[in-house]
Amino acid sequence: MTEERKEQIRQRLLRARYPRRGAAKFTHENEHNPLILEDCPICHGRGKVTWEGEVDGGRIAEIITCPECLGEGITGQVVPYFSNAAPICEAIVYAQDWMRCPYCGKRFSLRDPDRWTGLRHTTCGQKIRPAHRPD
Fold it and tell me: Is residue 41 included in any domain, yes or no?
């Protein structure tokens, strides 16, 4: 078996075992930081890029297959969803379940699944223990 064929099989097994970023599941077992297939740094997981150039004296732009990942959208590497490995912090929950992240300073709603996994702030990946204000 050739090295190229072995690499194709390895890539197929990785795709079967690990999800893409958009399909990741946040669970207590993975500390809300699942292992995922890394997005291509050139096309950011889209598989396409914009090419701009001159043809016959005029400028054109065209959407082409990413030359780095060949349209796959991934690098073939497995990485954690969040790179933040800081210890868990506590933050005060304000009215209507709003909180300010102690790591990046951004405010977000605990009800927004695009900003809160139940343990991590999705903007920076910080683990947070919500503490309700004593009234």
Answer: no
The secondary structure of the chain, three-state, reads CCHHHHHHHHHHHHHHHCCCHHHCCCCCCCCCCCEEEEECCCCCCCCEEEEEEEECCEEEEEEEECCCCCCCCEEEEEEECCCCCCCCEEEEEEHHHEEECCCCCCEEECCCCCCECCCEECCCCCEEEEEECCC
Q: How many domains does the chain have?
A: 1
Query: How do residues 33-65 score in pLDDT, each as one tens digit?
Result: 999 999 999 999 999 999 998 888 889 999 999
Mean pLDDT of each 10-residue bin along the chain, 135 residues long: 87 92 95 96 96 87 94 94 96 92 96 96 97 73
